[in-house]
Fold each of these.
Amino acid sequence: MIAELSSNVKRVPIPRIFRILSGGVFLVIIFCSSCREGDAYREKIRVLGTELSTRPHTKEDVRALVHQSRFRGLTLREDSPVEWGVEAPIETGAKNWVLYIEFKDSKVAALRVRTADSKNEHPKSAPPDQVFP
């Protein structure tokens, strides 16, 4: 009986354009959500840079500061004894910011914000580079 009823029900095809448009809307929603998250992480990088510029910080100070809950989501990379990086999560197009921290005599000597794909290019909305005596 159920088989008879289901065979009598006509299946209405969903137009292809509707499927394409709904897929596009879904991608826009994901992209906008990613942009807002990226903005939040860029703000965390700004705040961290501001805090590190207030006084001479040691490597231990930097490590402790980055691991505070308010900087959750940022990743500390201790790549070398003279330069560390603090990264925001990866964004589409490698737009995520990286705060490069240079050390001299185990104290913060310079702060530079760059994007993940270019250590030389300063993002337009990033804070200016800071070099300490």
Amino acid sequence: MKTPGYIEKPLYYSLKNSQIIDRIPEKKTNQNPENKSGIIQLMLFGCNFFPYCIYDNIIPLISNLKLISSDKIERESSKINHEKKITREENEFFENEMEKIFNEFLKKTGKKPYILFSGGLDSTIILHKTASNHPIAGVSVYMPDQKEDVEKAFEHYEVKKVFYEYPDSERYFELLQSYKFNYPFINAGFADDFFHVKNASAINATSVITGIGADEICGDYRIVKHEEKIITFQTFMEKYSFFDKEIIFSIFNNQEVKEIWENSISNFDLESTLGRIDFVVNTFFLNNQLALIWNNSELNQNIKRISPYSTSEFFNLINKLPEDFIENNNMEKYFLRKYSSKFLKGKIWAKKSKDFNVNAEKLTSPKLKDYINHNYKKIFNQSQLDIKKISPDEQLKMSILIKLLS
């Protein structure tokens, strides 16, 4: 079955008409538990996925495209091997597959594509490929500290409009007050994305293009990189919990949090690289990043959002990769770098990956703190949260959680 454009339906819950999912998995029982379970899962992972959700009218599901251990994948033995040294045949095979993926992607951009540009490898590849096909109607630049990278990339490509726009604390708070969350996710990047997509809509762009999916599907996340072989509940709470563990345990007891954690991760093999990629794809990618994108698309005249990396074809290609091809000699997204080294100028392909975290200190404000304090006790039936003891990053997360539950 051919998958239609991304995202015509929420890739997030209704998986029928998405870019990465071809069919809806069978429905299970107990799909709408009490909000308490959904809240705990949101605080652990930043999103809801099967079987928990804070919204009763939404049924969260897990992707039916499951990555499995590399030794169980049917491989084209004539084209792929497991040696550390990547062969010429392997390079040719993956380059050809990537060309097919981008050829299909370019058919969907329309004549006035608009790019959300981070200055990183993934979006630079997109800029190069899209510019070769259509004039770029506009570019939004995400990170102010990426200005040098951005200007270096723009030396080689003609761009009609460049928007350097970053929300300050006032704009963030105003947007939070009026923002409608159609899906439960906690991601402070919703504000940046909203304003950028609004710019694209204002100039009648035919599509908004992003590099979303490359980091997640290629496993460029801490939890994927096997700092420890087995992830226990204690390890997860110490290193990977979305909210700080002290905040979670100040609201819920240890046993109920552990139960939700165990039920949530039971579908995933966290002892292998591909199993951890599967975990990242089904949690943060599908149910956080893409929920954010779909939400902002709905709020901006349903503008079309596309990404060459958020496709079942790209997902399946990664599924075929030997682990050494995903990350080789500690170089993340190795095969994307090999692929792009032939056409990206100025050695952009060799740039080290950078984190694209929201600058929480610039978005927090006395108004935001008052908002949290005013609503915290009412929602959680707890004494007032000591806002002075939690970081700006945790304040942003808590403000979004409160908005979701208000």
Amino acid sequence: MALKREDNGTYTIRTQAEAEEAIGLRQELKADIQDAEQDATEISKALLRFLQDSELDELEVPGFRAKIIQRNYPKWNGLKLRRLLKKRFAADEWQGWWRSLTTRIPDQEKINEAVAAGEIEMEDIEAAYEDNPGQPFLEVRKVSD
């Protein structure tokens, strides 16, 4: 008897032959999924390029909306922070500040604590806090009619 999908979507394997068939079917399905995912990725890239080239932020078609999403990822710039600390504090002080505000990179929690405690002014170091734009990506959502 051939491998058969039950009405509830499950499979039951009863024989060695069905198990062998299941392995082959599984591998075919996995390959088809990989191909479909690759096609979907390439189509998304093409849609993103089209929207960017057309200077559109979004495109709505019946039932779906495609929208360009651009996120920023703010973080502290260690080189700028170090330079600003050197500029603000005396030679014997800035290194202590550097060690207290960073590990190998600026430590957000330590900086927040020092500013909250009034030990350092945000105005003295805020130029080192930067927004780093992420790669734009396409979001496609189903919309109700």
Amino acid sequence: MQRERLEDLDQTGAQTLAWWQDAWARNMALNASFLQKGRKSGKVKAAHKLPKILEPRPAIITGSGSSLDEFPFENLGKDCEQFTIFCSVSNINSWLAHGIIPDYVVAVDSASALLNFQYKPTDDYKKITLLTTPTINHKFLLKWPGPIVIFRPHQPGMDLVEQYLPKMYADEIETEDARNRFFVPQFPIGFINAGCTVNSMIENACYLGYEPLFLVGVDFGYSNGKPGSLRYAYDKKQKKWIGHEHKGLFTMEQLRLSKNGIRTTSELLHYKLQFYIVWSMTRARIYNCSTKSILGNTVPVVSPIDLALRWRGLYENYPINESRLYDYCMDLAVEMGVKDQRQKPQEPPAPASVGNVQVVNSFESLPPAVQEEIKNKEKKENEQESNS
């Protein structure tokens, strides 16, 4: 069994993007009409319109590793209200099965695998906000019963999401000079395409202002000899949740050994690397509640017992200097095979333009007159909504 080491990172990344690009393009086109109608009805919002957290509030980031089955859900009890819970489609039912309704479910997969999601006949899902992108599987998007919040996938070098998506999902602003047109992206907030849902959860949580973050079930490996946590489905006949074993997707020949001896795969090692990159960019105070993760002791490990009582002290006494987190994470990435270029995270690409058509990446970059026109338009819309 091979030891932890990533080779041909650039080639692997290019192959992954080429594999998914057609699905992203198809979903972008299929989702356009639904998202436009949803914005008008209020069911769909843009990520930048969500309220920011102005003081420390902890969040739980939920992975689907087998250690999730050992998490003491019952210990949170009524204290779970202190936490904002981020989960994925594959583990949302783990929370519901223990009587806890998560706040956000993050979905970034464009594949049809999302359609295997098992709903319980209840209104609980209507209370959970879906955080996703315009490239999400179309049928799953139509099926989601609760509120929907959209962010843009950020993938440097991919024209599909960097150039065409902002233009496809944009509002045209008319000016007195008909020769100049401005297109303001409806979903201006972009998060780097970090490969897996956990990394997207971290980006969303940090953008909204949540800290500290507690990783639960984030193993990136086959801990306990299992490929993942139980998959819960509601049995209508027995009227209770039933946990089913998750079947593995990889053969023994595809497995690797992490540095701390946990079986993993090349794909999961890439997710681990992207986790370090996201961590370095967000500089978040992150703790891991799993001792069976391939992250090992690179992330401060805490017991999940009594988190509700201890989280504030953990926030105030974070053991890693935030000003050094970037270098710390880059050192870890270099160990995995990344070239040590020691460059700060790249700035977002400059606004695109074609002829006299301009796409701006933020409201502040618009001309003052156009800003005032947008404000007046939004004011009228808000007055109409309040009157209705």
